[in-house]
Amino acid sequence: MDLRRLDWILIKAQTMSLSPREQRFIADMIDRRERYGDAVPVSDKQEDWLESIAARAA
Hints:
Structural class: mainly alpha
Order of helices and strands: HHH
Helix content: over 70%
Shape: globular
């Protein structure tokens, strides 16, 4: 996943109304992004979920 896209989704998601499960997922992804920096691993399933959240932000 493009890191600029990931960062945009994570920032937008913080302003959205998310389910508790989505909130935990986003918080975990933010923690991982901060911990791993540009080497953050994002699985296909995680990317699908992030894109699903991003689609609602548009």
